[in-house]
Amino acid sequence: MTTVRFGPEHSGMLLALWNSAVPHDTMSAALFHEKVFTDVAVDETLRIASFEGAKALGFAVGCRRSTTANAGSIKLFAVSERARRSGVGSALVNRIEAELFAAGATKIRIGESPPNYLQPGVDRRYVQTMAFLEALGYVEFAQTYNMDVNLADADLDTATEELRLHDIGFEISAASANSADPLRRFIDSVFPAWRGEVDAALANPAPSVYFCSRENTVVGFAALDGNNRGTGWFGPMGTAPEHRGLGIGEVLLKRALSDIRDRGHNTAIIPWVGPVPFYERTVRAYVSRTFARMEKSIGNAI
Ligand SMILES: CC(C)(COP(=O)(O)OP(=O)(O)OC[C@H]1O[C@@H](n2cnc3c(N)ncnc32)[C@H](O)[C@@H]1OP(=O)(O)O)[C@@H](O)C(=O)NCCC(=O)NCCS
């Protein structure tokens, strides 16, 4: 077995491996490329694959960014079914860990590499993966959810609510080049952790952010396609604390979901939730996936 860095020339082979090894998270070639080759925090030392002759046995992708300070993450890893339980997975993960710890990370999280991430943790249905990570010294520190919305029968009409908001001074708009700067200032001051996903959404060819303003001041937003582009990915969204309870979030959510429907999706994904009852009440979203959030600190290295 040889373990080497991989490049775009290996994408077809590694994506095929991924799609058979990780069945709840199959990716298109475009999405694989977005995850692996467009993230500035994923450099060539963090893209490694193991081969036996010309056959890929497994691969892993690390990232020099996570959701907490001084942390890195492991964005993707998979070993083909026929090569399991022979040390391939641990060799790959150990190598990414060594790279990240040597560069100063004190913690590594699984999957958590926003703004560019595939899933916010380990889907509990991957029982083998949970056992593997525990064997390598990872511990679960929280749980999170993805919710789905069935768009085919969702009532996303906001006309009456938008009139009501207009009467009390609030306007709902789709972001354009002109509104991008005030929107970014709002994100930086109220929701700084979401700047990357909002920037990615603003960079899309079609407007992918809706916002609410009052007297030319942004007070809330909802984005789509800011990560996992083309999959029906909603979010992030947020309303400034002083303007909550007026129905602004519900209107922004419905505008963004309606846009996802217009792009041809039957289902929208609301990832890494968050306020489950809000989404359930407003658009009948339901919990579709449960993730264990897992991490390893340098002191627990095995
Ligand atoms: C998780 C995965 C990478 C493990 O790869 P692997 O090459 O089989 O792992 P290793 O052989 O290095 O296993 C190391 C240790 O992990 C534990 N482990 C691995 N698979 C296990 C299983 N099925 N049951 C129990 N423990 C397991 C064991 O302690 C094992 O050591 P041992 O074989 O000496 O007992 C592989 O099962 C896989 O590709 N799963 C899908 C990947 C996935 O879910 N990716 C999504 C997250 S990004």
CATH class of the largest domain: Alpha Beta
- Which CATH architecture of the largest domain is right? 3-Layer(aba) Sandwich
Q: What class do helices, strands and sheet pairing give?
A: alpha+beta
Q: What Rg is obtained from the alpha carbons, in whole angstroms? A: 20 Å
What is the beta-strand fraction? 25-35%
Question: What would the average pLDDT be, to the nearest integer?
Answer: 96
State the shape. Answer: elongated
Q: Portion of residues in helices?
A: 25-40%
List each distinct ligand once.
coenzyme A
**Helix run count:** 9
Total number of strands: 13
Span of the ends, CA to CA? 22 Å
Instruction: Name the CATH superfamily assignment of the largest domain.
Output: Gcn5-related N-acetyltransferase (GNAT)
**Pattern of helices and strands:** EHHEEEHEEHEHEHHEEEHEHE
Give start-end ranges of low-pLDDT stretches.
Answer: none
- Counting structural domains, the number is 2
Describe the biggest sheet?
Answer: 9 strands, mixed
At the fold tier of CATH, the topology name of the largest domain is Aminopeptidase
